Amino acid sequence: MADDEYLRVFFRKLARRDLLSNEERDALRAAAGAGLVYEAKSDLVTEGDRPVISILLLDGFASRYRLLEDGSRQITAIHVPGDFVDLHGFVLKEMDHSVGALSHCQAVAFAHTDLQLITETFPHLTRLLWLMTMIDAGIQREWMVAMGRRSAAEQMARLVCELYVRLDVAGLIQANAFDLPLTQVELADALGISAVHVNRVMQELRAEGLFTWEGSRVTILHWDRLAQRAGFDDAYLHLEREPR
Amino acid sequence: MADDEYLRVFFRKLARRDLLSNEERDALRAAAGAGLVYEAKSDLVTEGDRPVISILLLDGFASRYRLLEDGSRQITAIHVPGDFVDLHGFVLKEMDHSVGALSHCQAVAFAHTDLQLITETFPHLTRLLWLMTMIDAGIQREWMVAMGRRSAAEQMARLVCELYVRLDVAGLIQANAFDLPLTQVELADALGISAVHVNRVMQELRAEGLFTWEGSRVTILHWDRLAQRAGFDDAYLHLEREPR
DNA sequence: CGTAGACTTGACGGCACTCAAACAAGGTGG
DNA sequence: CCACCTTGTTTGAGTGCCGTCAAGTCTACG
Fold this sequence. Notes:
Two copies of one chain form a homodimer.
Chain A: H1 8-15, H2 22-31, E1 32-38, E2 43-45, E3 53-59, E4 62-67, E5 73-79, H3 87-92, E6 98-101, E7 105-111, H4 112-121, H5 123-149, H6 152-169, E8 177-179, H7 184-191, H8 195-208, E9 211-214, E10 217-220, H9 223-230
Antiparallel strand pairs in A: 1-7, 2-6, 3-7, 4-5, 4-6, 8-10, 9-10
Chain A binds a DNA duplex through residues 151-152, 183-185, 193-197, 199-203.
């Protein structure tokens, strides 16, 4: 039906990596359950939960995070539309971290029983779902490399590059610009630095004129120079379409 | 055969998380291919490779790492016996990072064609393999949290705790002690700090008397206090045995 | 027009970095 | 059997990135 196309952004993401058959699309449509809406700052899933559904983000931004005893927070992933934000729960069973909405979010639920059915009926589709979680893991590795071995400025520029490419896959880039509803405090928690330092580094990057970030609108001015500044290479996003 | 039991440590790791049927064990035995041996400092897989096998580590230690343009290195994971060090390659196809031997290593190869057969024949076993990669991803998240929000001392203590538990699953703890063939330079690359600082922090922890680290032998003296010092909680290792 | 949230700025301190050299221990060859 | 080399660990000095604390500005909103 016309309505089915709310999965478009997800199909687009999968099809970017491999052929997605009509049967597989149908299986996903059949497994898609209730629509979900979350307001900014609310949790989609909370550490310790044992979810019976997995959530596919359709619109808005979400973060994967953990809170420490001293109240500090580390964001370990930022999710964009088309991301399956907690396929983890399907195999892990118990959540070892939380997923929160960075903005108003729309999502769709996939019951674990239906996902299990997919794993028992559609091996290739299962591998693609597995692939999605492995690409997420690759993104995490890249964040780690940046946290451990790059300067705060490079790290921040790198994040902008990454989100640009991922949002492009989701079809959310218009004229080299995209929405990114992240406060400097949230950015700090994602980069593993302090909010004050985020502010200073942001000014430094602004002065370099590679991109602008006004309100929640990011505009890339010089992609090549930005990517170079950030030491960014999109290989880890595995954008090649090939048999998996 | 008697020889089959070289997969024991892997079976042990899987069975710790869910029931592993005899059919599944047989399927894994059938898929296990050539034995592999690597000397310390050699690569099991190199960034950019398109492997046609995946490697299960049977003995020794390996690291997952990326090299940057300026020659610096970030280790993103440390693998112990029983870890499938590059199941990644099976779904990602092209490696976006390298895996190197930290010590002399023995491993066994699983052809991707055989793994593909498993995904098409053993859905439950497939979910378990997927689970192994998701636990690795959870470990990565925990490393990120430590890198971003903990002090170098906590981070180092945390790594010792994690390896203690993971090696225990592999059956490699004797009398609260285990081998850990990591130089301070390698430790530095894993923690995202400098080698000089590793040395100083190590002395600090030594003075606290929570564990000893002599040569490549680590001995835990006070587990509870060490875990507390490190802010360590093993929930993210998902050690509960339950239907997946 | 007052308040809340986000951003910005300044002062100051410390954790961690770099550079450089010394020390320890195992391995090798003459 | 002992210089000598290599690899790893340790130490010192000097520096700087980045953290904390604290206050001030700006904007949106009721």
